[in-house]
Amino acid sequence: MSSAPPSLLPRVQLRDYQQEAVTRVLAWFRQTDDPGLLVLPTGAGKSLVIAELARLARGRVLVLAHIRELVEQNHSKYQAYGLQADIFSAGLGLKQAERQVVFGSVQSVSRHLARFEDAGFTLLVIDECHRVSLNEDSAYQQVIQFLRAQNPRLKILGLTATPYRLGQGFIYHRHLQQQAVRGEESSFFRACLYELPLRWMVKKGYLVPPKPLDMALLSYDFSSLTPMASGYFNEKQMDRLVSEQRVTPQIVADIEQRAAPRQGVMIFCASVRHAEEVAGLLPADLTGLVTGATSSEQREALILAFKARQLKYLVNVSVLTTGFDAPHVDVIALLRPTESVSLYQQMLGRGLRLSPETDKQDCLILDYAGNAWDLWSPEINQPQPARDTQLVQVLCPGCGFANSFWGRMNAAGEVLEHFGRRCQGWLEEDEQSAQCDFRFRYRVCEACGGEADIAARVCPHCDATLVDADKRLKEALQLRDALVLRVSGMTLEASVNGRGLPRLKVTYHDEDGTELSDWYALETPAQRYVFEQVFLRDHLKAPGCGWSPASAEEAAAGSERLRHPDFVIARKMQRKHWRIQQKLFDYQGRYRRADAAGS
């Protein structure tokens, strides 16, 4: 790709952040062929960025999207340059692939790959790239593999407002702006090149502010709903819960009342039957209903009528979350739970576009399903471990990077617990770059003493096989002089030993009543150091946060900061006393943990 625009071609004036995004892409592809992505919120003008990149490209360009509305939208922005491009989309009735730039639907292109057998394709752009699966049989991967076979140096750029996939987390490995690691090493997109936060877009006046209302007194209860193996909610289960609760008429009446002074209302429902019920309770002459079964012609007519404000209410079931642009929408009503932050952001994003024509000031967010996602700060790679957890900031003791982990805080704002394993910081020194190697939680390799992730099976330092917890438990259970505690609790007590010296007594309780204790001295710096190494390192709920008790009394008083192991293995010494030899944390295996420990 060329960094200098052809002088004879017309230009559309980009906003500063759009030009910055283009500049970051050009810089990335000058140094690597690895796939990269841009994160731009709904309404930020992704189509204009795509058009500028396609205009600058020296070779051929293929721009893919998953629905025809996005194909058409991206194509029209490119035409705003006064340039011509082909469309390859069965849904739009066109299958042209001769010009330098082609805008296509992934389904149509993947079914006609022979039409794209040209080594001249140098850039592949994927809109809504969070839909790219790692499955080699998926439509996107088929296109990628085919184009790479023609040109191994193919540049691949993704664009999305929501860079995460259900069950995967972030779809890219590292974030260049934040100098942070976000996704797995195996992520298809190697880096986020540029991200524009939603809060910044609202603050700068490029989007209207969302105005959420607390609907706790009138809402559905979906707390008993559990995701399927795929991670998605079952539509039949959602439909059953909605039917049993019988609050839909009151909710629809509440929507009508709150939306009375508003221009356009989008309502997202849990099932087709639910959507039909909601639409039936709204004014027939002002309401449109769109489901997966709605014909293309009828769907297009309803959307046009809604955009023309002939209809005020548009009821749908997960079919208008992307590629839908109706700037006058100023009410979003959620009548369904959302499995993922991506879906949540996509739905709310339908109402945040500017609408000078209607003088829209904000967008009313009516959530009748108790969705817990944070619109402003959803950037977390792991699923929320519990409802009472929140995003906490944890500074890395090694490099100082401010990590974002799920965790818990006390009333004073101190982090009591977090679920981070490794620092997310990305370090660049002396032309070398790598992820910070500080680990908050880890297991130690018995062969070399190196630290490995708690779920690792092979040591990353010496390639030795790490002994798994099940093997340790099995071996201990077969020994006559070994005792295995299935730990259900732990107590700490400031006490004295047999010689009257102050000590911290830590007692582990088995669910059957058996107890084992350890004793620790904390009087001298050397003793406190040993305590940190052999006890605190594994027991702290928030490792790396700096809490280090100076006395047995302080340690006992801070017991809320400590976690107990899942299993304790002890051996009998001199046929008299039990000595704890191993403690197993973060256990995931075939042996049952204590009921009080969460199994």
Automatic annotation (TrEMBL):
Keywords: ATP-binding, Helicase, Hydrolase, Nucleotide-binding
Glycoprotein as UniProt keyword: no
Pfam families for the chain: Helicase_C, ResIII
Gene3D superfamilies from the UniProt entry: P-loop containing nucleotide triphosphate hydrolases
GO molecular function: helicase activity; hydrolase activity
Annotated ranges, domain Helicase ATP-binding: 27-163
Occurrences of domain Helicase C-terminal (ranges): 247-395
Enzyme Commission number(s) from the entry: 3.6.4.-
Signal peptide: none
Classification via InterPro entries: Helicase/UvrB_N, Helicase_ATP-bd, Helicase_C-like, Helicase_Restrict-Modif_Enz, P-loop_NTPase
Protein name, per record: DEAD/DEAH box helicase
Gene source species: Marinospirillum alkalitolerans
